[in-house]
Amino acid sequence: MDDQREPRRRRAGGRAGTAAKRGTGRGQPPWRLVENLDRPTEPLTPEGVQAIHEGALHILSEIGIDFLNDEALALFRQAGQSVEGQTVRLDADFVTEMVAKAPSAFTITPRNPDREIRVGGTSLAFGNVSSPPSYWDHATWRKIPGSRALCADLLKLSQHFNCIHFIGGYPVEPVDLHPSLRHLDAISDKLVLTDKVIHAYSLGPERVEDAMEMVRLAGGLSEAEFEATPHMFTNINSTSPLKHDWPMIDGCLRLARRNQAIVVTPFTLAGAMAPVTIAGAVTLSVAEALSAIALFQYVRPGVACAMGTFTSNVDMKSGAPAFGTPEYMRATQMAGQMARFYGLPLRSSGSCTANVPDGQAMWETSNALWAAVQSGTNLVYHAAGWLEGGLVASPEKFVMDCEVIQMIQRYMEPALVAAGPEEIALDAIAEVGSTGHYFGVSHTRARYETAFYQPIVSDWRNFEAWAADGMHWTASRAHLRVQEILAEVPAPLIEDSARGALEDFVERRRAEGGAPTDF
Amino acid sequence: MDDQREPRRRRAGGRAGTAAKRGTGRGQPPWRLVENLDRPTEPLTPEGVQAIHEGALHILSEIGIDFLNDEALALFRQAGQSVEGQTVRLDADFVTEMVAKAPSAFTITPRNPDREIRVGGTSLAFGNVSSPPSYWDHATWRKIPGSRALCADLLKLSQHFNCIHFIGGYPVEPVDLHPSLRHLDAISDKLVLTDKVIHAYSLGPERVEDAMEMVRLAGGLSEAEFEATPHMFTNINSTSPLKHDWPMIDGCLRLARRNQAIVVTPFTLAGAMAPVTIAGAVTLSVAEALSAIALFQYVRPGVACAMGTFTSNVDMKSGAPAFGTPEYMRATQMAGQMARFYGLPLRSSGSCTANVPDGQAMWETSNALWAAVQSGTNLVYHAAGWLEGGLVASPEKFVMDCEVIQMIQRYMEPALVAAGPEEIALDAIAEVGSTGHYFGVSHTRARYETAFYQPIVSDWRNFEAWAADGMHWTASRAHLRVQEILAEVPAPLIEDSARGALEDFVERRRAEGGAPTDF
Predict the structure, then answer these.
(1) Contact A383/A349 with Cβ under 8 angstroms?
(2) Where is region (Disordered) located (chains A, B) (predicted)?
(3) Signed CA dihedral, A27, B356, B142, B11: sign only
(4) Nearest Cβ partner of B429 from A275, A325, A422?
(5) CB contact set of A233 (below 8 Å; sequence gap of 6+)
(6) Residues A63, A82: contact at Cβ < 8 Å?
């Protein structure tokens, strides 16, 4: 049986262990950015796109949106927009003109330039789960608080898997670190344990400024080099309905002024913080995103901005949010149509409602990940490791999700769908005719090693071989795989000078007390 | 823990049990045929479609295909085609002309006319798993042989779920029934325990003729009524590469002469029975399907025929077949492009390689089911209950798959993607403004009961509520749901006269010894 109480036996591994070792490191596909070959799925008619666009502009010009940030209010006034108290009403022309200044694609370059990502067009990049307070401890079947050590393990998985292109927020909240100092240690861990693009939270001026400085130091960049092009990004959520909070806007303004990348992701749960209808929830989401992006483009024309979508539904019986639902999929596809309408890159998510890495978790996550693909999403946030609506991180789920992501990458390889004479292979078909098989023919021998996707945690053995090896269900195999990866994943190279500068900075800021926690 | 050894505790149910009862019967969406709203995903360029078409015709005209059926060989000779021994070479014009006679859409009408299905166009229908010899016994965690009783349970699930539109082959092989009599009892069970469209195996003249007669009697139809329009269907596989066996072709010819529906599904595993390249495997599959469909159209112009696709890859390490892979998804989408090119309805499958209803099973099955949607498939065979590459049937997996299928149905509801003024809901957005929430507003109250998909086995409660209820993973919840459904599902109505005629027929044929088993 799938006995979760036998870690020793599980660690023993047997053939599962061998298969696992085959899968790690060398076994996985190389780092590459994915080009999305497929035409997006577009549930909205052109009239529907126009109606949502006009609805969003109507919301911003007639109903108005609150910015709980005095600097933003002053900037809107300066731009000749209507400001009453904290409520801003924006001219349709102003919004359209400002949003048009945003680039349709941009790059973000981490300390290892080979890990630069492109955001926009057909580019499709995946990131780890971000910000769960808790962690699924598969060995004890308990939900435990996040810690710096657990966060580090998830960062190592994020570095290990080539299909993970960027590092979002903390993959689990290191609650054992004091809030005033947490960002220093956690961002330092991100910059040392990974060499990929990282995110910084917009949670007050000190944290944002510290994060930008740490990214600059880790990359060994001058001020000018840092500001020449995006080297990091932040992601903010509006407080739906129709509200932007102070620290989120403050952080974005600071990044905008230093030419770093900004993702604006309203969290519009249909039936709760947004209309119960999907088109209504998407319209509200678009309005909230456009208002912030217009502000950032006014402050720094051309600064890298992406539109985020996080529209799902609630269970109308309990009010609990649900993810990976049909409503979620369609909302994501609709948001993709709107992002293309505005010429903005799109961010969506992998997500699920399930509490453990089981069947429900994987059909919900598959729905979310494929909806991201179908929507033309450029940045897939929370793509690996998410459980319980984002409240729990799981390394087992991380590995299982990476299997799905790797299959999406393989699915997008042009060679897979090529149909030239070499692929149609009439000579091989004539050679085999109606007898024998294709294992031995030269056409097969020349291609079989790279012909098909090689799994990392899927078990393709027959029932008897699988049963003889201990009847490990997927989550148990993933648990074993996690232990193997963490035992062997090497830390990425970092220049001693850069590392030293980073350590000195953290030391100094720690001595200064880090960031105030009174907001 | 997810202890599979505590059936009593699981049966007790608790809140899971309550939730389960909410989900059964009344809770599920009503019977309806799904219209696929989405533009198909088309990996092949128009040139690629043309190249595969020309490749398939080249195979049939130059390489040839074997028909191990004298009647077929005589018919091809009569049609002026080249026949050497059992190898047939078909003129491109003959194939094109014959295939053009096939209808692009047709109906199949079971004994309950309300359960008629349309095959073709944007219609999307789902059927149960077919033909596994074994059964996953979740209570004991053993793989056990199929039986008439287990088959009947799966037929009851197939009848219960409105998202299952047709009954394929036996959902598990009733190996406790003697092969000579098996078809009589098993088809009788299909016709009594369900009122949906059924499939009959092409396994020799007696079985096929018995099946047609039983469908006719169960429907209370005259010979003329039976032959006026399709009331059942068969599905055949070619013996790839390039071979059609005697009983398959014999059965199809018998159905064709009585105007019943035929699905031709080559089973082309890339790298084994087909080229290692997906385009090559699809080309071989198309050639094999066209050759049989051309024959049936020659015999009865306009008879209902669908093209099937079952192209996947093997694990090149072990040679074992793999399903729900990226290669499988692209092959299915390519087959959809070819079916539309020929104006033929398409059949594909739900499938997976996993041995148990776990995470791998659900990402593989999700890949297969969404590929069916993306390919424009009309008939999704094996859509619910399949494990271990089709060697194992599982009622738990059946329920889990039905959740995914119901979500696909919900996903395809036009109302979900409507974007008129009522859906964009500017009045509600103005009413709520930047304060409060949408739970209470009239726009929500008027819609919330039907606004969102309601799950049957998904658990959307938070971790704590889920844990307090016994930490049941998806398969355990599905196991509980299966027991509840089987306890309450009513047998469909059947006319006493029809039932009596069916029983008399089975009695007579049993007395005659059923079908010979010496082929």
Answers:
(1) yes
(2) 1-33
(3) positive
(4) A275
(5) A108, A197, A199, A200, A255, A260, A261, A262, A263, A304
(6) no
Nearest CB neighbour to B466, from listed A66, A243, A355: A355
Write down the domain spans for chain A: 97-412
Q: Determine contact: B195 vs chain A, CB below 8 A.
A: no
Rounded alpha-carbon distances, angstroms, from residue A173 to A144, A187, A192, A391, B100? 11, 12, 17, 10, 62
pLDDT in tens, B339-389: 999 999 999 999 999 999 999 999 999 999 999 999 999 999 999 999 999
Residue A34, beta-bridge partner list? A124
Residue B152 CA to residue B489 CA, distance in Å, equals: 12
> Both tokens of residue B476?
């355990």
> Which of A360, A433, A452 lies nearest to residue B458, judging by beta carbons?
A360
- One-character DSSP codes across B127-193: EE----SEEEETTTTEEEE--HHHHHHHHHHHHH-TT--EE-S-SS--TTS-TTTHHHHHHHHHHHH
Chain A to chain B Cβ contacts (< 8 Å): 407
User: Rounded to 5 degrees, what are φ and ψ at B119?
Assistant: -120, 110
Tens of pLDDT along B420-471? 999 999 999 999 999 889 999 999 999 988 999 999 999 999 999 999 999 9
Q: Tell whether the model's pLDDT for residue B17 goes beyond 90.
A: no
Tokens at A52, concatenated: 């949502």
**DSSP tag of A62:** I
Q: Confidence class of residue A518 from pLDDT cuts 50, 70 and 90?
A: low
User: Is the CB of B43 inside 8 Å of chain A's CB atoms?
Assistant: yes
Q: At what angle are helices A395-411 and B359-375 packed, to 10 degrees? A: 30
Distances (CA, A) of B417 to A52, A335, A349, B36, B289: 12, 12, 20, 13, 37
A208-212, A271-275, A318-322, B166-170: least confident range: A318-322
Q: Which residues contact A208 (CB under 8 A, 6 or more apart)?
A: A200, A201, A202, A234, A250, A251, A254, A255
With CA atoms as reference, report the closest residue to A330 among A375, A267, A266, A380. Answer: A375
Mean pLDDT of chain B: 94
pLDDT band at B104 (very low <50, low <70, confident <90, very high): very high
* φ/ψ (deg, to 5) at B357: -75, 70
Q: What topology is assigned to A97-412 in CATH? A: TIM Barrel (3.20.20)
Asked if residues A33 and A118 have their Cβ atoms less than 8 Å apart, the reply is yes
CA gap B118, B120 in Å, rounded: 6
Binned at pLDDT 50, 70 and 90, residue B19 comes out as very low
Q: Nearest CA of chain B to the CA of A194: how many Å?
A: 28
pLDDT at A420: 97
Classify residue A115 by its DSSP letter. Answer: G
Predicted confidence (pLDDT) per residue in A236-279, tens digit: 999 999 999 999 999 999 999 999 999 999 999 999 999 999 99
Q: From CA B51, how far away is CA A420, in angstroms rounded?
A: 7
Percent of chain A beyond pLDDT 70?
A: 95
Mean pLDDT of B298-308: 98
pLDDT in tens, A321-347: 999 999 999 999 999 999 999 999 999
User: What is the sign of the dihedral through the CA atoms of B402, B173, B492 and B251?
Assistant: positive
Interface contact B452-A316, CB threshold 8 A: yes
Tally the residues of chain A: 519
Closest of B327, B479, B499 to residue B9, by C-alpha? B479
Residue B317 has what pLDDT?
A: 78
- For the CA atoms of B412, B384, B116, B376, what is the dihedral angle to 10 degrees? 50
Which residue do the tokens 């287990």 mark?
A: B150
DSSP character for A32? -
Matching residue, tokens 């000195």: A504
